[in-house]
Amino acid sequence: TWTISFLYCSVTYTNVKSGLAFMDDELVRAVKLTSRERRFIKFASVEYDGQLYMTPQDFLESVVEQEPRPRLKRRQLNNKDLEMIKEATPALNKGSTQMFRTLRDKGIISYTEYLFLLSILTKPQTGFEIAFNMFDTDGNQRVDKNEFLVIRRLMGGTLMYERETDEATRKAMEKIFSHAWKGKHGVPETAVPGADDDKKKSHPVVEDYVDDDQGLQRKHMVDTTLIVHFFGKKGKDELRYEGFRRFMENLQTEVLELEYHEFAKGHDTITEVDFAKILLRYTHLDTNEYDMYLDRLLDRIREEKGITFEEFKVFCQFLNNLEDFSIAMRMYTLADHPISKEEFMRAVKICTGTNLSRHLVHIVFQIFDEDGDGQLSYREFIAIMKDRLHRGFKSYAKNEGWDAFKSCVKQEMKSPM
């Protein structure tokens, strides 16, 4: 197994060094791209009229895999393909925790929607309503297609003037969807006809999309899978909060199921060691540090009960509240002190309104209790869990050449055997 993994990583490294992988040249030319832009380009497997899109399968792979599936080139879509995609997209009331996996390659996701979906994965449920209200620009508790497109364009770096969006709204959106690339590509500013001097200074040029060289934004409008799912095949439906909340919950659950079942391999539970591997999977630990945590757990665990999906899901929902947990710890004046199991469980309850199982908390402490005194190192736990929460995303940007080879070996060691 290790020989095969090593050969796989060696081939990956050779491809990167020689430029055989078709994406490498694009990434080299696009040296100014952010890590998320690079990752979108790497995983996007389809193209229409010069614009790149992810499929639902591409998106799922981009958040759980280090590299995309091998492919020779992107699939070029035509108008007939777009009609078939529209027909395959389920209505909002038919959404489920299987939707992305069911659609597979029968769907398209734009770059700005990719940013939106990424933001959903790390948002606590308390943030769902805030996100919805940002789309609901007229405050009528319903979002129509135009409102969705306005905010989607804002996230992508441009702003339409059918609606008034002030500086405070833009800053709020950037805080919620923190990976927007507004202004990064040098979008010029220009005056809006009839605007006063203040507006002339603050508004960028009126464009449908930024026309860049990488195919992330183009000046044409396509009804993507999300638009059809939210607003119907004719685009006339309105999105209400309950449907929006259900979509966000379904997506979070679907990604967690995909990750969990990779380790469960058909069983009802995963082992405690597998749970530790999932927690440490996307972190920036080196191989020795990674092994140290697993060895610590193996030495201390006395009884293997397994971790159910529901336990795993509740813990991951807690991680989406990690900032609130940090605040709770500071209010306890525990930020620089070890934390007991009781204090840990109480803080989680305050932040999420749910209880973690005692067995799962026990396993977490066995992983992160350095000296076995029953206390958790706050700083160590928070730092590693932040990596886990964002799935080590910042590390993807440097994974080229020799760094890619080392990262590949590391990821193979972390993968379930």
Shape descriptor reads globular
Q: Could you give the distance between the termini?
A: 8 Å
Beta-strand content bin: under 5%
Helix content, binned percent: 55-70%
Pfam family, one: EF-hand_7
Subcellular location: Mitochondrion inner membrane; Mitochondrion intermembrane space
InterPro entries: EF-hand-dom_pair, EF_Hand_1_Ca_BS, EF_hand_dom, MICU1/2/3
GO molecular function: calcium ion binding
Question: What is the element layout, followed by pairings?
Answer:
Layout: H1 2-18, H2 22-29, H3 35-43, E1 46-48, E2 51-53, H4 56-64, E3 75-76, H5 79-88, H6 99-103, H7 111-121, H8 128-135, E4 142-143, H9 145-156, H10 167-176, H11 197-202, H12 225-231, E5 239-240, H13 241-264, E6 269-270, H14 272-280, H15 287-300, E7 307-308, H16 309-319, H17 322-331, H18 341-352, H19 358-368, H20 378-389, H21 393-396, H22 401-414
Parallel strand pairs: 1-3
Antiparallel strand pairs: 1-2, 4-5, 6-7
Helix pairs in contact: 1-22, 7-9, 13-16, 14-15, 15-19, 17-18
GO molecular function, one term: calcium ion binding
Subcellular location: Mitochondrion inner membrane; Mitochondrion intermembrane space
Protein name: EF-hand domain-containing protein
